[in-house]
């Protein structure tokens, strides 16, 4: 009897373990790829005149490609919104150089006071990895931000681990007081792998190293649900200007002399490698792939602009068992929606009372709901913008002299060429639309300027060299004297 009981207990334990493993495998994996400084117009699935991007196009054709998806017009504010699902009235990250709610010591680490999607999923049984650009988390890279593994660039000399010496290449400097030369992100790069400096040589290309690490991670962790976050450095130029050559042009390459066209080809091939890795591991059908960018194109007057071209980014979602094939979609989406979408698909639980500002896309992606949301909003520094399917309000910035912004009738379209600029109080319908859009902006209220801390931060921002644009002209003009 004793032996029978022991055997039955053992069998029961095995069955429970297999059941738990099966349940684990049923939970979807997430692969989030964020390219740098690219607008939808750079991809052939959005614009047939663009250079061919066949692997990315295949994801769009067999999933959902959103024509009107908004991030923000600048990297840090977009990345904070993406990883926390919260607007800057909570996080304080309005611009790379305007961070109102942060303490001085935590100024660039929004992760210290807000939950990241990696933390939420790891607490609910997911394995997590970050590869690529550590600035995607405000520069902070350790276990407290929710990732089990890291392979990322060193964005500053201070990011090199204490006691280790980097002997590779350096880039130029950014236009800030006391700026230092930036360690190379491309050829002979400065890479930190799980807290240690990785040895690299002249023939090593940073994005290759990141992709190799992620492919290996997929192989190693295929029996546990995972979140893989890959913010690429591409197509950002090096500090001081210049684009790197791509590996298919020869090794070792150079950090100047490259082209955007080659970068698009390389990015597309990288997506192909990752899809192949998922298929080889038997995980393709149960992995939600999210492909997007952090802000609009920096080469054509989009990045840093408080116009729709600033926050408008490509957004493609694909997963054979997770996403109904819908192709090109006119539904409105914003970056705050991605965090709640991950929570919804994974069944993860948030801390009681913890609020997100986005809306889950799962009902729309699975086809159980025909629409997603009625409006989206965005912001950069002191400027905000909002739109519905038929109306858009941009460049609302009372601090820099644009209190009412510019109102457009979008006519249900997604290209500015099809919009109609509306003059002041042109019709009762336009007046009502302006009022509605201003009310939408109240979902992300601008901080009280009478607060001394807020006023101080605005004065500090006013001295920065990389301020925002209200149109396609010049940067906003200084409002404070030195």
Short key terms for the protein model shown above:
Alkaline Phosphatase, subunit A, 482 residues, 5-stranded antiparallel beta sheet, alpha/beta, single chain, 11 helices, disordered N terminus, 26% helix
Description:
By secondary structure, the chain is α/β, with parallel strands linked by helices. The chain has helices spanning 2-26, 54-61, 75-84, 88-91, 117-122, 206-220, 260-280, 338-346, 362-365, 428-441, 452-462, and strands spanning 29-35, 64-70, 93-95, 98-99, 127-132, 149-153, 191-193, 196-197, 226-231, 287-293, 312-318, 327-334, 376-380, 383-387, 391-396, 406-409, 420-422. The protein folds into two domains: 27-369, Alkaline Phosphatase, subunit A; 377-446. Helices cover 26% and strands 18% of the residues. The strands form three sheets. A ten-stranded mixed beta sheet has the order 8-7-6-5-9-1-10-11-2-12, sandwiched between helices. It has a five-stranded antiparallel beta sheet with strand order 13-14-15-16-17, with helices on one face. Strands 3-4 form a two-stranded antiparallel sheet. Residues 1-24 have low confidence and may be disordered.
Question: What topology emerges from the helices and strands here?
Answer:
Blueprint: H1 2-26, E1 29-35, H2 54-61, E2 64-70, H3 75-84, H4 88-91, E3 93-95, E4 98-99, H5 117-122, E5 127-132, E6 149-153, E7 191-193, E8 196-197, H6 206-220, E9 226-231, H7 260-280, E10 287-293, E11 312-318, E12 327-334, H8 338-346, H9 362-365, E13 376-380, E14 383-387, E15 391-396, E16 406-409, E17 420-422, H10 428-441, H11 452-462
Parallel strand pairs: 1-9, 1-10, 2-12, 5-6, 5-9
Antiparallel strand pairs: 2-11, 3-4, 6-7, 7-8, 10-11, 13-14, 14-15, 15-16, 16-17
Helix pairs in contact: 6-7
């Amino acid at each position: 009897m004793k032996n029978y009981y022991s055997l039955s207990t053992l069998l029961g334990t095995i069955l429970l373990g297999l059941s738990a493993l099966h349940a684990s495998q049923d939970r979807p994996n997430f692969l989030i790829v964020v390219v740098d400084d690219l607008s939808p117009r750079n991809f052939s699935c959005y614009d047939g005149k663009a250079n061919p991007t066949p692997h990315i196009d295949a994801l769009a054709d067999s999933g959902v490609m959103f024509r009107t998806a908004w991030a923000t017009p600048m990297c840090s504010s977009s990345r904070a919104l993406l990883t926390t699902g919260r607007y800057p009235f909570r996080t304080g990250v309005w611009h790379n150089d305007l961070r109102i709610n942060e303490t001085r010591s935590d100024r660039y680490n929004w992760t210290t006071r807000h939950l990241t999607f990696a933390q939420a999923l790891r607490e609910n049984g997911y394995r997590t990895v970050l590869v690529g650009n550590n600035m995607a988390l405000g520069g902070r890279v350790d276990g407290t931000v929710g990732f089990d593994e890291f392979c990322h660039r060193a964005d500053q000399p201070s990011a090199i681990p204490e006691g280790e010496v980097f002997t590779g290449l350096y880039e130029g400097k950014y236009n800030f007081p006391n700026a230092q030369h930036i360690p190379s992100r491309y050829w002979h790069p400065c890479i930190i792998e799980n807290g240690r400096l990785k040895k690299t040589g002249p023939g090593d290309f940073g994005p290759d190293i990141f992709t190799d690490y992620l492919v290996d991670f997929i192989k190693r962790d295929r029996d546990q649900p995972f979140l893989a976050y890959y913010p690429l450095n591409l197509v950002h130029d090096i500090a001081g200007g210049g684009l790197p050559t791509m590996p298919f042009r020869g090794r070792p390459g150079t950090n100047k002399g490259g082209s955007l066209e080659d970068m698009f080809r390389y990015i597309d091939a990288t997506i192909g490698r990752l899809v192949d890795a998922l298929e080889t591991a038997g995980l393709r059908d149960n992995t939600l792939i999210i492909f997007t960018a952090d802000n609009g194109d920096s080469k054509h007057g989009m990045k840093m602009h408080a116009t729709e071209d600033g926050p408008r980014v490509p957004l493609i979602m694909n997963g054979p068992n997770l996403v109904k094939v819908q192709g090109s979609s006119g539904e409105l989406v914003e970056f705050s929606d991605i965090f709640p979408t991950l929570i919804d698909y994974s069944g993860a639980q948030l801390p009681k009372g913890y609020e997100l500002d986005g809306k889950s896309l799962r009902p729309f992606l699975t086809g159980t709901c025909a629409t997603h949301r009625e409006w989206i909003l965005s912001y950069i520094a002191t400027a905000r913008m909002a739109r519905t399917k038929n109306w858009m309000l941009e460049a609302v910035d009372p601090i820099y002299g644009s209190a009412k912004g510019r109102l457009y009738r979008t006519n249900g379209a997604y290209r500015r060429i099809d919009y109609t600029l509306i003059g002041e109080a042109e019709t009762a319908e336009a007046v009502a639309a302006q009022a509605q859009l201003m009310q939408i902006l109240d979902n992300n209220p601008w901080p009280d300027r009478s607060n001394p801390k807020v006023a101080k931060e605005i004065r500090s921002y006013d001295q920065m060299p990389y301020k925002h644009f209200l149109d396609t002209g010049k940067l906003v003009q200084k409002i404070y004297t030195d």
